[in-house]
TrEMBL record:
Species of provenance: Cacopsylla melanoneura
Protein name per UniProt: Solute carrier family 12 member 2
Keywords from the named record: Membrane, Transmembrane, Transmembrane helix
Primary localization: membrane
Domain of life where this protein originates: Eukaryota
GO BP term (any one): potassium ion homeostasis
Keyword hit for Membrane: yes
Membrane topology field: Multi-pass membrane protein
Length: 132
């Protein structure tokens, strides 16, 4: 359902993420799921749809001044977080050692030589954080 909504609102291109994606197949799947909900228990399905409609109308009526963010930003953040967490499971080896340096410089512009030295050690391929 998410790819369908992204395509309808003109969001990011999902061709790399969903190779076999088709908007109409996704819409028909959502409609089929709704029909199956009504076939299983029409009372629960009706209450669910009424609740969803009520929540939607409350949000539209109140018009909160909120930045809901985009799915592209959320996906980028989530991917970065998972990649960083995945680094915990990678064994260190001499060939792929990358130092992670925290340089306590105070104001970074006050000690450019210290930052340059740390940059030489990390060679612009590692994490280098300068802290005030």
């Amino acid at each position: 359902m998410r790819p369908l909504l992204n395509q309808l609102v003109g969001g990011l291109r999902l061709s790399a993420l969903y190779v076999l994606y088709n908007m109409w197949l996704s819409l028909s799947g959502a409609i089929l799921c709704t029909v199956v909900m009504f076939l299983i228990c029409w009372i629960t399905a009706l209450l669910t749809l009424i609740l969803i409609l009520a929540l939607y109308l409350i949000i539209v009526y109140r018009k909160p001044d909120v930045n809901w963010g985009s799915t592209a930003q959320a996906q980028t953040y989530r991917s970065a977080l998972e990649a960083v967490q995945g680094l915990n499971h990678v064994e260190e080896h001499v060939k792929n050692y990358q130092p992670q340096i925290l340089v306590l410089t105070g104001l970074p512009s006050a000690r450019p030589a210290l930052i340059d030295f740390a940059s030489l050690i990390s060679k612009n391929i590692s994490l280098l954080i300068c802290e005030i």
